[in-house]
Amino acid sequence: MKKLVLLVAFLLAGFCIHSQNITAKLIDRKTKTPIPYATIKTGKFSGVISNEEGYFSINSEDIQNNTVMISCLGYQNKTLSIADIESLNFIIPLETAINQLSEVYISNKRPNVDSIIARVNAKLSENYDISLNKYDIFYRSTDYVNFKNLDFDIEKALHVKSKNIKKANKSLDSLSKHIIASHIIHFSDFKGELFSLDKDSSKLFVNKATKLFDHKNDFSIEAVQEKAQTMALKYIDTMKTYKVKSGWFKVEDSLSLRNQDFKDKMKNEYNVSDLKNTTGSLLRKSMFVGDSFLKNILNPKLYDHTFEDVGYNNGELTYIVSYKPRRGKAKFTGKLFISDENYAVTKVDYKYYGSRHGKKVNLKLVLGVKFIENVSEGTYIYEKNSENKYQPKYIKRIKGAYFYVSRGLKLIENSREKNKVSLEFNIEGDNRNKEEILFTDVKNITLEDFTLIKQEKVVPYTLLKAFKTSTWQNEQTLEPLQEMKRFGSGE
Hints:
Distance between the termini: 49 Å
Radius of gyration: 27 Å
Shape: globular
Structural class: alpha+beta
């Protein structure tokens, strides 16, 4: 009996080792700084990347031939076994790759950047494949809100005692201070399969979805308005209902403390069509086709290109070319990383150039609204597939905006007297949204395969109020940043 127990224990231990989840950090051997966006291959065409803090996680079951190969622009490739990673205490140093300038400079002249860009454009159709693919993806969206100014005030309520108005305004002031001091951040994750017919058509199947969100700290503009309205009602008359009229927009809604406050109106499900539109849009923006974002960056009529340096990426010589706007229509600056072997763009970094921006609405004096899209930046990383074509491996897009809203609300009592309460509030701040997609695998499909895919209307998600390591353990995902790991911990 004892031998049987020992045998079972041994087998269980062996199973645990076999399915071990490994988290490690990449650092520069000399500077000890973290290395982001390195590729960690668990197989010839599978694997993950390191996050912005240099961390990555892999499951031992996904590792082929018991080794992983690590590559990153500017560093020497490194092949390690699980035992090697453990012996390094899960801190993996990478050596910088020394530029062999003699391999680049055939003559004493620097590489001609116009010639490089021309060859890139000539080989786009040869290097990239955009049609009839199935992508295994992991998607993460991170939302941030930073309120700079937040004022609420009950200006008029003739049927309410003055002491109650003072109490209400005091509570509203406390609410404002609490919101401004709050670290407002939410996370949405899902894993699924994105099917691409061409640059315009796609379908999505979601395998698993989560949302890391605290409803108590839901401080969208709509949620802040609702919290202020509900708080004001506590000091007016909790037994009556009111109709809300909002500013110039003639928005009317029924409002009461009894039937609205403390009620969670959100269903724990995502609209799959919305998720498909978001991920499909990110995929399209990674394509070098037509009048696309990236194709425009390669247009010498719109952008000036400058040869900066050479480096090594996965053992291949890589040209580093910077770009900036040449005409007013162009808005971005950044760097292109181009393979010397086949003139494929393997990485793109971009952000707004100088004070340039996206959408801008300034109706502050007329409607009390101002909006400026002042942040648009990101990274695209590409990798060869089994057909020797380049596919996106990782996409990051960050969008941010300044906003100002000055809104006057009237709460009209649903009674014969139609008593009114005037509530004014001003909101000013910045919001930011970061979207990331990790492509863990890609396969070709047929038109028939695509036609047979049925996209669901909604998909349920697991709502989490605090980060749990076990939620996505043993799956190929983006390793969370520290800000996500701290969520709900009270830090």
